Amino acid sequence: MNVLVTGGAGYIGSHVVRQLVAAGHDVTVFDNLSTGYRWAVGDAELVVGDLADESALDQVLEGRGIEAVLHFAAHIIVPESVADPLKYYSNNTRNTLNLLRAIDRHDVRHMVFSSTAAVYGMPDQTTLTEELPLAPINPYGASKMMSERMMMDLSAASDLRYVVLRYFNVAGASTDASLGQATPEATHLIKVACECATGARDGMKIFGTDYGTRDGTCVRDYIHVEDLAKAHVMALDHMAAGGESQVLNCGYGRGFTVREVIDEVKRVSGVDFPVETTDRRAGDPEALMADNRRIRQVLGWEPDHDDLTTIVRTALAWEECWQRNKQ
Ligand SMILES: NC(=O)c1ccc[n+]([C@@H]2O[C@H](COP(=O)([O-])OP(=O)(O)OC[C@H]3O[C@@H](n4cnc5c(N)ncnc54)[C@H](O)[C@@H]3O)[C@@H](O)[C@H]2O)c1
Ligand SMILES: O=c1ccn([C@@H]2O[C@H](COP(=O)(O)OP(=O)(O)O[C@H]3O[C@H](CO)[C@@H](O)[C@H](O)[C@H]3O)[C@@H](O)[C@H]2O)c(=O)[nH]1
Question: Where is each NAD-dependent epimerase/dehydratase domain found (predicted)?
């Protein structure tokens, strides 16, 4: 397929681009390089542009015969969205509207959308099915919920079919350490802990120790980025084979606490970096884990790296390479 990938120079997008190219797709990346990197797109074509610029979107969709759009480009930091909500509604919601208008103008028929567990908010149960009512508790989740809804409404009124992938917490790096998370000033738990272990940071904080979990810290379902990337390739295959639009959770269905993750990074790295405890961080749900039965059934997806040690080991190996070589 001829595929356009917005945000393909970013952490998750670049892993997906690599797998799409390997699967024989013709890939164009559209990215403003705000948090992404030119090197990350590998053999795909990179068009530097911003989703706020509809004429740039028209230009990239014109004449390339794009059959599918995978939409990763977004701001992604939950606490930042609480402090600066309009930044999130602008880049995530309004710019998705721009993209949908361009998709509609150019009759693109297939879309894969990067959504998030944050759309569920703080449900009573900790293992979440796709049918749960959406009730985000932070602007990031709300900005993504609105984007999902716009895409679904356009789909109902046109020939567009979609797969919404609701990612849980994405972590790890390619197993050969050639690709990984290079986000500037990253806030993600595993990335931050790996920066501590490799000496790029002096120490870190645990945000909140009074949650109703086994050790008082938040529980998340960490999914290896290569397993997540595989789900995107399978989602495209599903639509190419005439499959219906779908909403699919992407996670392993089990969770680790913040303390468990930090202990694992210390154990695998052999470095005992300083960790302080502090107050809860705004916008954090207590526990999020995926019910992943639907993605297994609909796409036939099976994880290859469902193991915290593998996630941490690959993240650490990447971090060491990145700290040595970053420009
Ligand atoms: N990282 C996670 O744990 C996680 C979890 C759930 C969902 N997601 C979603 O996955 C997607 C990718 O996240 P990531 O972790 O790879 O983040 P990232 O910041 O590494 O990647 C985002 C990419 O989009 C680009 N971008 C941002 N705004 C743009 C714009 N206006 N125009 C063009 N390009 C733009 C950035 O330069 C970057 O390359 C996001 O939509 C995010 O909401 C991520
Ligand atoms: O230095 C840190 C960083 C994080 N945490 C905690 O670790 C957990 C995970 O936090 P983080 O890695 O920042 O991820 P989330 O806030 O859960 O959000 C991620 O996971 C969501 C899906 O669950 C995605 O939608 C978001 O884009 C992505 O940033 C939370 O309890 C944080 O409070 C700390 O205690 N200390």
Answer: 3-251
Can you state the angle between helices 11-22 and 225-240, rounded to 10 degrees? Answer: 50
Choose which residue among 76, 169, 215, 252 to substitute to test ligand 2 binding: the one with the highest number of ligand atoms within 8 A of its C-beta.
169
Atom in ligand 2 nearest the alpha carbon of residue 207: 35
Q: What is the pLDDT of residues 83-142, one digit of tens each?
A: 999 999 999 999 999 999 999 999 999 999 999 999 999 888 889 999 999 999 999 999
Catalytic residue annotation: 140
Tell me which residue of 29, 32, 52, 50 sits closest to 41, measured CA to CA: 29
pLDDT at 282: 85
Domains and CATH numbers, the chain: 2-170+223-250 (3.40.50.720), 171-220+253-290+304-325 (3.90.25.10)
Vertex 234: Cα angle to 229 and 239 (nearest 5)? 130
Instruction: Please report which residue ranges of the chain form alpha helices under DSSP H.
Output: 11-22, 54-61, 78-83, 85-88, 95-105, 139-156, 189-197, 225-240, 258-269, 293-299, 308-325
CA 173/CA 6 separation, integer angstroms: 20
The ipTM is 0.98
| Cβ of residue 290 lying under 6 Å from some atom of ligand 2 | no
